[in-house]
């Protein structure tokens, strides 16, 4: 399967009730050969309107963070665990995560990134196999080498950019985590994209 075919399948998905209220599913976008994948929790209102991940204020902050470490949005792949917006931006429910998990698994297998950067506790819980048990402040900024969908990958959890917008005191923490990402890739940045 190609990434484009998977995106088409996601756009037609009716596996959980979230499809009933969506305007657009949000498969994800970016460099299909990237060695870095950012994984958010679920689309918000702006993403639902545009069908693209991280296009609101949180997306703007994510782009600023990428630029601060010498990357551009088009250098990486950005997606979410859940591909449709939960009503009123509520947290994704376990059954919604479960319904979307095969899509995330397929994306990771097709892109085959070396570094996964989960943004927020839901995506961290999925990647570390501990849904609902994660304190993002307890795991952020640490590099884990774990098996994710059949391959050992580096996982660098960080805060969701929206959290740093709601609580400006968290901004230095997310910046620290991006500096850690920069140090992970700095030895061979040119060959990564």
UniProtKB/TrEMBL annotation:
The keyword DNA damage applies. One of its GO terms (biological process) is DNA repair. It holds the Pfam family UDG. Residues 27-179 form the Uracil-DNA glycosylase-like domain. Its EC number is 3.2.2.27. It is an enzyme of class 3 (hydrolase). It catalyses: Hydrolyzes single-stranded DNA or mismatched double-stranded DNA and polynucleotides, releasing free uracil. It comes from the Archaea. InterPro entries: Type-4_UDG (IPR053423), UDG_Type-4/5 (IPR051536), Ura-DNA_glyco_family4 (IPR005273), Uracil-DNA_glycosylase-like (IPR005122), Uracil-DNA_glycosylase-like_sf (IPR036895). CDD domains: UDG-F4_TTUDGA_SPO1dp_like. One of its GO terms (molecular function) is metal ion binding. Keywords: 4Fe-4S, DNA damage, DNA repair, Hydrolase, Iron, Iron-sulfur, Metal-binding. PANTHER family: TYPE-4 URACIL-DNA GLYCOSYLASE, TYPE-5 URACIL-DNA GLYCOSYLASE. Belongs to the uracil-DNA glycosylase (UDG) superfamily. Type 4 (UDGa) family. This is Type-4 uracil-DNA glycosylase. It comes from Candidatus Korarchaeum cryptofilum. The lineage of its organism: Archaea, Thermoproteota, Candidatus Korarchaeia, Candidatus Korarchaeales, Candidatus Korarchaeaceae.
């Amino acid at each position: 399967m190609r990434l484009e075919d998977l995106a088409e399948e996601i756009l037609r998905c009716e596996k959980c009730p979230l499809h009933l209220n969506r305007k657009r599913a949000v498969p994800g976008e970016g460099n299909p050969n990237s060695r870095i994948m950012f994984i958010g929790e679920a689309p918000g209102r702006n993403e639902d309107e545009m069908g693209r991940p991280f296009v609101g204020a949180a997306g703007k902050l994510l782009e600023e963070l990428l630029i601060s470490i010498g990357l551009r949005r088009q250098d990486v792949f950005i997606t979410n665990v859940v591909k449709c917006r939960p009503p009123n931006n509520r947290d994704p429910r376990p059954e919604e995560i479960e319904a979307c998990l095969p899509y995330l698994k397929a994306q990771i297998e097709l892109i085959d990134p070396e570094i996964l950067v989960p943004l927020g506790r839901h995506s961290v819980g999925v990647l570390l196999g501990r849904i609902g048990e994660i304190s993002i402040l307890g795991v952020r900024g640490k590099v884990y080498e774990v098996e994710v969908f059949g391959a050992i990958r580096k996982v660098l959890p960080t805060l969701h950019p929206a959290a740093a917008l709601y609580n400006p005191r968290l901004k230095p923490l997310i910046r620290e985590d991006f500096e850690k990402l920069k140090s992970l890739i700095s030895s061979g940045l040119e060959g990564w994209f």
